[in-house]
């Protein structure tokens, strides 16, 4: 009756076993599991009493006890357990067998020597702990007794056959009794045949090293063949598998030998792992130096190690260790290995907290590396938790922080709300562009404004863009003037024809004689090229802080005429003629195709254009604008500019007069007329003196 009310202890067990991916590990079955309350992953070693012998059950109970009581960072961590009449359950940290891990690594190209060196270091250290500190012999060391956690760290398990090495009697059977195949891993000497207490375990350690590099050990004699064992490890390996048990080193001595200069375990990965294990007792200066050097080494570290070992230490160092900005670079490097969900859970909360820091080094590092995490930030966090702190950088006394703050707006602008983008940000941009004492910052502000223009609302673009870019063209810093020109080109689609003719072109034409060559070049590329009436057929790329190559700003006013055709004059309007004569005929048009010094322009209503002969490397563009504004309906404006190869300023002497002559030619004509007039007056004065008087002597 009481058995009817008795509860099954398995139902009260806090862990659930998952049926997939079960592995055999000696007398145990290794299963994946999870905690019922939190879903936290675990591994569960299960032994079914009904399926084992009495000796196996004895070993399972011994392993249960040893796993529960032995605690060491390099020994499989015990989490929970359950022992019933039918079965035994040992719950540990989530692990997989070493054999399965190496097989998976082989599919990816093989485990690196760095990873293996640290793994062996951990196993030898655990073995040294058992032999020297606990006075125990493992007696079961092999591939089947080593497990690998999520970080890729090796853990010593398989504690079924652990016995005391201080002469205490034991009733546990040796491994070969349970599994005869394990006999090939036994040392050649008979039990108690001489040597120290650790000789059997270090022999099996040598077998483990052989199998890690060469695969399954077929027979004991194969240990003589080194195979793929690294050269740095060979002399120390040979000591482990020496026929004389008295020369086999203590595990602690073997570890020191491998850590000596040039040894297999003397590398940056092992050094970093050892530092992380002792980071809590390190001095702040040592931590700072370690995190600075860590970034250079992370690329060679295993991915899982970075995610599950390095990342938690970085987060802890920032949260509780006051590590500061030095953790940012390695933090973002490790972040590349995380999924979007993991990044949101582990790194984003830390980043949001970092933005509120008053540490300037922290702030500038965040701004410089924003591109690595901006895609994981949601708009709510950007507007409420990040942007309010970032805007303080616009008024910072450090120019580097102000500049990085401006550049960061390229990434933040798409996520900003209406108020932050169109009001707060524009207010700071206007102040920087007009008042900042650093020319590069004014220049980058102009460039950034051109790039984020698509995100502004239409009303703000109407009020801000032309004024801001026009202001930039008057900046004493040449790069700022060039940025203003490029800003007009990059935002061409937002301007009307009237705005282009009445506000933008007059501003740009004054820059054709700018003293800086780069500014003149940008104006040439922006203004000279002809295109269709559509506004700014802009095709060049607006990318980078030093932008080149834009299309025509005058494209909304003129376009190329077909080859061999003339530009018809506007109705009831005379066409200005060059000094060389009337407008070109079809014969002259052929010269246009043969000689690049001619430019063909076609009249587009309401405009009148003509052929002009170019005297230098480039050409003069002359066009008349009609009816772009009602105030201009009866007025003709002749806009003349030159972009010459020698970049000399184009003076008023090159302008044309209503008579068809240039001012220079007209001045020359006037000088010639004046000369003739003076010669005529001299002749008149000479004639007025009359013939010589009598007695006067004529001088030759």
UniProtKB/TrEMBL annotation:
InterPro entries, per the entry? ARM-like, ARM-type_fold, CIK-Related_Protein, HEAT_type_2, Kinase-like_dom_sf, Prot_kinase_dom
Which stretches are transmembrane?
none
The Basic and acidic residues compositionally biased stretches are 674-687
Q: Which UniProt keywords apply?
A: Coiled coil, Repeat
Its Gene Ontology molecular function terms? ATP binding; protein kinase activity
Q: PROSITE patterns per the record?
A: HEAT_REPEAT (PS50077), PROTEIN_KINASE_DOM (PS50011)
- Annotated region described as Disordered, given as residue ranges: 562-592, 661-700
Query: Which parts are the HEAT repeats?
Result: 386-424
The record places domain Protein kinase at 1-311
Q: Is Ligase included in the keywords of this UniProt record?
A: no
The answer on whether this UniProt entry bears the keyword Repeat reads yes
Q: What does this protein do?
A: Regulates COPI-mediated retrograde protein traffic at the interface between the Golgi apparatus and the endoplasmic reticulum. Involved in the maintenance of the Golgi apparatus morphology.
Q: Which family does it belong to?
A: Belongs to the protein kinase superfamily.
The name of this protein is N-terminal kinase-like protein
């Amino acid at each position: 009756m009481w058995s009817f009310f008795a509860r099954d202890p398995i139902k009260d067990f806090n862990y659930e076993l998952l049926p997939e991916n079960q592995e055999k590990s000696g007398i145990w079955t290794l299963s994946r599991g999870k905690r019922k309350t939190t879903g936290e992953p675990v591994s569960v070693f299960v032994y079914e009493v009904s399926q084992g012998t009495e000796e196996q059950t004895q070993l399972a109970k011994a392993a249960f006890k040893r796993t529960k009581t032995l605690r060491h960072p390099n020994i499989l961590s015990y989490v929970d357990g359950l022992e019933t009449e039918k079965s035994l359950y040992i719950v540990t940290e989530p692990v997989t067998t070493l054999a399965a891990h190496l097989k998976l690594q082989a599919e990816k190209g093989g485990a690196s020597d760095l990873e293996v060196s640290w793994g062996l270091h951990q196993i030898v250290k655990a073995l040294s702990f058992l032999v020297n500190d606990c006075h125990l012999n493992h007696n079961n060391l092999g591939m089947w007794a080593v497990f690998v956690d999520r970080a890729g760290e090796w853990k010593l398990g398989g504690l079924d056959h652990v016995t005391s090495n201080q002469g205490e009697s034991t009733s546990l059977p040796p491994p070969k009794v349970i599994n005869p195949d394990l006999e090939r891993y036994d040392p050649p000497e008979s039990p108690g045949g001489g040597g120290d207490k650790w000789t059997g375990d270090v022999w099996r350690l040598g077998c483990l090293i052989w199998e890690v590099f060469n695969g399954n050990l077929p027979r004991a004699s194969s240990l003589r063949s080194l195979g793929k064992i690294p050269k740095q490890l060979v002399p120390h390996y040979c000591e482990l598998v020496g026929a004389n048990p008295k020369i086999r080193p203590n595990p602690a001595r073997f570890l020191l030998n491998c850590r000596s200069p040039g040894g297999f375990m003397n590398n940056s990965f092992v050094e970093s792992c050892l530092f992380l294990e002792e980071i809590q007792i390190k001095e702040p200066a040592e931590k700072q130096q370690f995190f600075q050097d860590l970034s250079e080494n992370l690329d060679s570290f295993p991915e899982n190690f970075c995610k599950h070992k390095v990342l938690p230490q970085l987060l802890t160092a920032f949260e509780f260790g006051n590590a500061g900005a030095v953790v940012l670079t390695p933090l973002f490097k490790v972040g590349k290995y995380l999924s979007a969900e993991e990044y949101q859970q582990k790194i984003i909360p830390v980043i949001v907290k970092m933005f509120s820091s008053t540490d300037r080094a922290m702030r500038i590092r965040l701004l410089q590396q924003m591109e690595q995490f901006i895609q994981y930030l949601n708009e709510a966090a950007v507007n409420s938790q990040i942007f309010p702190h970032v805007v303080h950088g616009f008024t910072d006394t450090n120019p580097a922080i102000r500049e990085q703050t401006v550049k960061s707006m390229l990434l933040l602008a798409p996520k900003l709300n209406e108020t932050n983008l169109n009001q707060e940000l524009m207010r700071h941009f206007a102040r920087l562009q007009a008042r900042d004492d650093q020319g590069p910052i004014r220049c980058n502000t102009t460039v950034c404004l051109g790039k984020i223009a698509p995100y502004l609302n239409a009303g703000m673009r109407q009020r801000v863009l032309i004024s801001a870019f026009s202001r930039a063209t008057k900046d004493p810093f040449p790069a700022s003037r060039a940025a203003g020109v490029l800003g007009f080109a990059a935002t061409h689609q937002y301007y009307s024809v009237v705005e282009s003719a009445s506000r933008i072109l007059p501003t740009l034409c004054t820059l054709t004689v700018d003293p800086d060559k780069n500014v003149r070049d940008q104006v040439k590329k922006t203004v000279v090229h002809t295109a269709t009436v559509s506004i700014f057929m802009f095709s060049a790329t607006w990318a980078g802080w030093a932008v080149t190559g834009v299309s025509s700003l005058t494209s909304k006013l003129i376009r190329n005429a077909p080859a061999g055709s003339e530009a018809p004059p506007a109705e009831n309007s005379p066409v200005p003629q060059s000094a060389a004569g009337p407008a070109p005929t079809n014969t002259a048009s052929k010269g246009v195709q043969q000689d690049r010094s001619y430019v063909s322009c076609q009249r587009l209503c309401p405009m009148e254009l003509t052929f002009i002969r170019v005297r230098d490397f480039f050409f003069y563009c002359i066009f008349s604008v009609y009816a772009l504004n009602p105030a201009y309906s009866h007025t003709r404006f002749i806009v003349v500019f030159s972009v010459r190869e020698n970049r000399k300023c184009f003076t008023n002497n090159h302008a044309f007069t209503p008579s068809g002559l240039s001012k220079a030619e007209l001045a020359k004509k006037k000088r010639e007329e004046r000369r003739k007039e003076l010669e005529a007056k001299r002749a008149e004065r000479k004639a007025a003196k009359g013939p010589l008087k009598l007695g006067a002597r004529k001088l030759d």
